[in-house]
Amino acid sequence: MTFVVGENCIKCKHTDCVEVCPVDCFYEGPNILVIHPDECTDCALCVPECPVNAIFPDFELPEDQKEFLQLNAELATIWPNINKKKDSPSDAEQWKDVPGKRKLLER
Amino acid sequence: MSQPANILINEIDATPRVRDALPGMAENPVLAELMDLPVPAALKPAVAPEAFAHRNFRDDEFWRQIPGYADVDRATFLDWKFQNKHSVTSLDKLAAVLGNLVSPAFLDDVRAGIVRAPMNVRISPYVVALINWADPYRDPLRVQFLPVASTQLPDHPRLTLDSLHEQADAPTPGLTHRYYDKALFLPLDVCPVYCRFCTRSYAIGGDTDTVQKAGLKPDPKRWHSAMAYIASRPEIEDIVVSGGDLYMLPAKHLSTIGHLLLAIPHIRRIRIATKGPAVSPMKILTDEAWTNALFEVANAGRAMGKQVCLHTHFNSPAEITEITRQAMEVLFKGAVTVRNQTVLIRGVNDSVATMTELVRRLSYMNVRPYYVYQHDMVSAVEELRTTVQTNCTIERGVRGSTAGFNTPLNIVDLPGGGGKRDIHSFEHYNRTTGISVYRSPAVHSDLAYLYFDPVDLLPPEGQERWARPAEHQRMIDEAIKAAGLTGMPLAVA
User: Fold this and answer.
1) Spatial distance between the Cα atoms of A105 and A6, rounded to a whole number of angstroms
2) Which CATH number fits domain B175-424: 3.20.20.70, 3.90.1300.10, 3.90.550.10, 2.40.30.60?
3) Which residue has the higher pLDDT, B285 or B217?
4) Is the pTM here over 0.90, yes or no?
5) How far is B218 from chain A, CA to nearest CA, in Å?
6) Taking CB atoms and an 8 Å cutoff, what residues of chain A touch B219?
7) Is residue B246 within 8 angstroms of chain A, CB to CB?
8) Is B130 exposed, middle or buried (0-12, 13-18, 19+ CB in 10 A)?
9) DSSP 8-state assignment for residue B17
């Protein structure tokens, strides 16, 4: 199994998760983070760190976010690694829990 | 100069002096006044250099012989994140790292072994690099961390998955309260490596083909529930924090958990149990935030008159290198007491010679050898268990080889939740059926506990009786009767 970053990370990207990951398996895109499934150890440390509850174990990924399993796997091999927290986007708060963010994911 | 005087000088020169015994120390100001003193005549023969093998800590770049790590420099290999991130977690990763060091037949054997295993594979580069891949079947580290199908034996007929009944004694998930004044707290369920013989294979690591795990995720709400129970039980003075492994928690969580426990007034002693120093000792050297958090919690405890100790899990002298020695030195200089708990494993440390070397090595690093455990009755690792008799033999051989405070207690953690008992303290032990009977009056005064030797190590008569299910209860009844405990209920019926 693996943990998966879901839709709610889009345009929030707080990066608290990357500080606790014992294997540095987060990768950073323009407006979302993803987890490399081959590197994730299933430790779950990142889950409670996320201020917007965007991280799920693969078997608990909401039905309408199933495609994020594949998106994480694909984008983690393209994007650069991130292991230090950085400032959240200035408008992160207003994007929290906004439905339909999937179409805003930038590659 | 006269002749007799010359003879006298020659005689003096031939007498061993302290300076001969301590070459290179002639300039030491403290020892200066001793240097010319004659050494008293020895009553014992000189010790052969081989006897000091336990002081030789390998300091070569041993990982370079592994094709996957051939280009890894020392600084990178010592980086704890490198160890975490490049751990081998699948057969494909293993094959890629080892290249042509192993045969396709061996990899097939591993593939078949993984299917039956109750634990995921997870092996740090440090451990991968210390395995002798020219002879992997007999390597003590391979035996511990990488299953192969060809050596596997059927489970003992009396085996259960959570043999220590930790779940039955848990008032809240991840908190086991069995002994009167002690509790076991499991903050998470991942480790830096997965031991094949994990006694918590019911919970630790991810699901495997054969076991769905109970799951103990690092959830602060669950931690608080455990703290709430601990706070409500004034008899609890001792907390063992295990897992899973705090080695995998970031410094801030180590700090939070440590300070919460220290703040509970009746808690006097905290033990952090970790496999980490045995499999990834460089973390102590390169994860400064984590090591400092450990020191900070230990120092806060000391200021409150409370102990914070580390319990490690070294099983083989082959796990210990110069990296380990340096890491243990950092902990010693930081005034953290380190004790070691070894599991007695067939093919790893089941001889007096190996166990003596391990004990001496640990002692040399100021790690106190604390326990040698009889291997728990764990599924799918029957070939790793050995007999109670072997444990008794090792205890007799090791005790007396070094100081008592550095001599481990050889114990069996009784199946059914009886706790740890001196291996020699059985009420009865039948070496033919391999059944030993123990009692644990301070834990449960009215129960009898049984341990079962692996069947393949019994004499033919014992093996033949275990081959017939109708004999099983009869053998147990015989043992209970011989122990003088007829009628006493068994902890595991």
Assistant:
1) 11
2) 3.20.20.70
3) B285
4) yes
5) 6
6) 44, 47-48
7) no
8) buried
9) B
